[in-house]
Amino acid sequence: MTAEFMENTPLELPHSPRHGELFDLLVEGLTLDGMGVASVSTLVGPQKQPLNYKFHIRKGLPGDRVRVQVETRNKRVFLAHITEYLEPSKMRIEPRCRHFGRREIEGQGCGGCTFQSLSYRHQLMNKERLIKQQMIDHKVDPGLVYPMIGQEDPWYYRNKMEFSFGTTGEREFALGLYPKGYRYQVLNLKECFLESEFTSNFLPKIKDWAMEMGLKPYREGDQSGFLRNLSIREGKRTGERMIELMTTHRPQAECGDKMVDATEIAQRFKAFILSEAPDDFTSIYWTQQYVERGERTRFIEHHLHGSPVLLEKMHLPGDQILSFEIHPRAFFQPNTRQAEVLYAEVLKHTGLLEGGAGAEEEEGAEKKRILDLYCGTGTIGLCMAPFAEHVVGIELQPNAVDNARQNAHKNGIDNITFFAGDVGAVLKEDAFIEAAGDIDLVVVDPPRSGLLKEAREQLKAINPPRIIYVSCNPKTLARDLADLSASGYTIDRIQPVDMFPHTYHVENVALLTRHEQA
Ligand SMILES: C[S@@+](CC[C@H](N)C(=O)[O-])C[C@H]1O[C@@H](n2cnc3c(N)ncnc32)[C@H](O)[C@@H]1O
């Protein structure tokens, strides 16, 4: 039996585990947010009271035998970190990036990719296990979970990265990412394998420019400093690139020993980008952030150079190539190549394309009327519209809806209508009911919280023959699938797609069909 399938041996303890105490444990699995888990049955105190404890172990991988130190306790769950590897897991590999590792070591502990020490094959295997466990916990058959579709080349996959200006633990100027769980220190990135070699090499140049200018990172504590974030977006299918410098809203900022107008600093930023990388950016922005306690953050964008939007394309089944104009604030799936795979999976299950699941039994069927709920900038609905009679999208963010309408126009798609508002509320509106007509298929892609009660009830009232549920959270997916299967739906399959290699995040596409009524 391999170590990862063995269990911890029961322990006799004089008292329940306390802060700072050391334990030798076997990591048996992972939590949904990527921490190692060890479950231990214990006999505690002179009465030998039987108690089961769980340890959540930072950076622990299934199969690791480790010495851990307890940090904190929440009921019977203890958070602990590894002090010694007694026998590392067979799944462990050397991480590619120098910033992986323990945050106590300078230059390590990046919160970007927590699974880099797991081989990619084992990442997929463990994510699949996590999904199956959620299904078991919610009494959904885990046999419905198909093998995860991994990414062909799981490096340099992101089309957007947002970096923070700040200071390191040694109070040095830094531009990079926060270590996991930290908001007040920034890890200075010298390399990053998530977006591109270009971004990885360009980031230190921006940091040097800011330091030479004598600019200061914004500090939450005394609200001093000017620089907040730097975002770089790349069109993976178009080669376009957008850079956005985000600062406070102050009209002037400290530049060394002088105060300089913010607009002047923005012009110098543009001049620097154009001299350092004259052909690499198709769009340059400076954005001021207004952050007030208790209020939604406001962004004032100043377009400095090139195109006001980033153009990205998606290659989809049915020989479709769709174009998307992405404004700095617009949401777009962060992994273009895997989003194509995810959307192809959705399309396959719609039965709209020849050879898709359900296509055979519906040969010669009328074109379908479809709902795209939580539609964001309309990408899923736009992929389906060319094969459907009509699509209606609903999305909470009015900006995203504006973008969705522009995207429809840009792609010459006129059989799609978008409504701005809360899904639960819009589904009851007369204007929506009239536009939607009889619905054949509903696609939902909610945020991590899943379908809220009202949306679930409205969905059941519509009672569509088929539902496709796209989810970024297996826990709420399992909850909602259990609820829908108790309300007349059969779960046909759950297809995991790895959208975020080297992180614990997982995406699933579930297909549900309404039972035939007797
Ligand atoms: C996971 S994203 C899906 C985006 C889109 N389907 C895509 O693939 O690009 C979830 C979307 O739901 C929207 N949203 C969140 N709560 C909502 C609600 N109550 N009603 C409507 N939309 C909501 C968010 O603004 C976000 O755009």
TrEMBL record:
GO molecular function: RNA methyltransferase activity; S-adenosylmethionine-dependent methyltransferase activity
Keyword Zinc: no
GO terms classed as biological process: RNA methylation; RNA processing
Keyword S-adenosyl-L-methionine: yes
Enzyme class: transferase
Domain TRAM span(s) in chain numbering: 16-84
Catalytic residue list: 472 (nucleophile), 472
CDD domains linked to this entry: AdoMet_MTases (cd02440)
Name of this protein: 23S rRNA (Uracil(1939)-C(5))-methyltransferase RlmD
Organism: Bradymonas sediminis
Higher taxonomy: Bacteria, Deltaproteobacteria, Bradymonadales, Bradymonadaceae, Bradymonas
